[in-house]
Amino acid sequence: MLSKLNAVQREAASYLDGPLLVLAGAGSGKTRVITHKIAYLVQECGYAARNIAAITFTNKAANEMRERVGTLLPGKDAKGLVVSTFHSLGMNILRAEAGLLGYKPQFSILDSSDSWKILGELTNSGDKQEIRDLQTQISNWKSAFVSPMQAEEQGGNDVEKVQARVYARYQETLRAYQAVDFDDLIHLPVVLFREHPEALERWQHRLHYLLIDEYQDTNDCQYQLTRLLAGKREQFTAVGDDDQAIYAWRGASVENLHNLSNDYPRLRVIKLEQNYRSSQRILTVANHLINHNTKVFEKKLWSDHGIGDPIRIYAARDEDQEAESVVMRLMAHKFEHRTRFADYAILYRSNHLSRAFEEQLRAQRVPYTVSGGTSFFDKAEIKDITSYLRLIANPDDDPAFIRAITTPKRGIGNSTLEKLGSYAGKRKISLFEAAFESPMADELPPRQYEDLMLFCRFISRIEERADKDPCGELLDELLRAINYETWLYDSHESRQADAKWKNVQDFIDWLKRKAEQDEKSLIAMVQTIALINMLDGKNEEQDAVSLSTLHASKGLEFPHVFIIGAEEDILPFRDSDEKGIEEERRLMYVGVTRAQRSLQISYCNRRKRGKDWFACEPSRFIEEMPEDELQYAGGHKEAAPTVTKEEGKNKLANLKAMLNREGTT
Ligand code: ATP
Ligand code: MG
């Protein structure tokens, strides 16, 4: 079982005498240790798959892990194995134990735009920054296990006092909606386990061995959850790389790597040093770059793959030309080397950078997928349909109720909703429940009341069948009944409507496939959809170029990688302080180490913001890479000959001077 591992990896995979931390650089086989260890536990040590849980960072990584385990274990042996993200593990725990926390198992999961709306209503504020701060503050409180009451008692400055009051009302609102937010998915299980030892025991009994990937990015809540689940048995393997810690901004703490050795005196640490992923050149560049950070743990990394091609640094004139040149190069490379589209990845710091590349790829008819984007599940039409599904799963979900009842419009306007809302508010019940109470019949004009009841009864009818009838059938019926297609074409320009309707159909097809594959009911599907958050995108199995944020590329690998937009103020992100710069450098390190065989890093000499052009500086991280391994190219669209670094620099200087002149004329 372990023959495909090197000696140190094998030791890590077979070590069962206590808690284990595998601390090692990129591409050294950490994830491979996890997948092989799962197979080893089942086939050699008599563990039942259902007693093992592997926890990864994104749904995409979880899917990939499931696949990798699938090739090692026959299907029947893998039955019941938990491979999930922290969030979906938390969701499953909550669903099973909802009653203990006063929730019903069909609770809704709100995404950050839903909670944004709620906070906006609670504060009655249009100030985006204020709401953003509130969101961050509430999230921090939750991660630190500070209840609304404690937050109020803590006091602090005036702003914090107000925030604490909103926090309390926010939690009340979530309860009323029978909803939880993303933070709750991890926070609430910890609360549950602390308050209900019998529930904890149930889960400890269920999960005997835990394996956690990307450990460097766990936050305090996740750390506590792991700790509780591991319990006295202390049987777990965590793997991680402090150089790839890129979620400090979301409260993740590399400290958790240190905490492990404090909390578990028996902890064994194993280091891996051989990289099996990348060419030597790619590794040299990566090592050089990350050496500019202060070291937490000393690590070595080497590869016996060939030296490989130099890293190409490409200077583009502007955004459009960068996209054009990357896509052209990609296509020529593919043609020459007879590779697949899926062998290529285009990675970037921020979502908006993908736009020019998506345009180019579309123009050249190159298939691509976007992950880490807000792209698919945040599209209005997808959220419209999802609001119906959420409402069917949980009629008390007020945000879903409001969206569904008003899209498509069905004669129910603001005044009806306001009356309904104020009645529901007084009675402290959901809008849906309020609609069925008799006083509403007098409050509303007969016509509006009738429309309202029509809608609510329709939702009830589908709800009754949601657990039994096949998901696909229900979805088709729902779409027909709400006349969504007609509404789309009536209220949008036809090309736009075409695109939207196609998205809806894709979505429905995907839901049907997924429900069938995982044998899930509509209700279970709804909670799954909610979890496909901004980190994941839609998972499609086709030969396509991957467009991804650097954050979402973690753990993945591609033969050929393009990192784009490598400019100051983008990567590193603008206004990063010293700590921020180190995190940005780790992000660049993550990007570089995704590449197996070739890597191109590009930047633009100028960018348009609004109507004006601005000159851009190449990222300092390029400067920090060893010159001998780099090959400079680009500068102009017409001439892209390879030049030395010195020439490249001169050229760059000339170009900048030129652009500055251009900018002033
Ligand atoms: P990252 O830090 O980026 O998540 P990782 O440490 O998890 O990287 P893996 O993804 O597990 O590394 O491994 C990198 C690549 O090297 C994979 O393609 C894996 O299959 C391969 N690999 C790892 N160990 C071995 C080995 N002993 N023999 C052959 N290939 C290996
Ligand atoms: Mg990995």
From TrEMBL:
One of its GO terms (biological process) is DNA replication. It catalyses: ATP + H2O = ADP + phosphate + H(+); Couples ATP hydrolysis with the unwinding of duplex DNA by translocating in the 3'-5' direction. The lineage of its organism: Bacteria, Pseudomonadati, Pseudomonadota, Betaproteobacteria, Nitrosomonadales. This is ATP-dependent DNA helicase Rep. The keyword Hydrolase applies. Homodimer. Residues 3-279 form the UvrD-like helicase ATP-binding domain. Its EC number is 5.6.2.4. InterPro entries: DExx_box_DNA_helicase_dom_sf, DNA_helicase_UvrD-like_C, DNA_helicase_UvrD/REP, Helicase_Rep, P-loop_NTPase, UvrD-like_ATP-bd. Belongs to the helicase family. UvrD subfamily. The keyword Cytoplasm does not apply. It holds the Pfam family UvrD_C. ATP binds at A24, G25, A26, G27, S28, G29, K30, T31, R277.
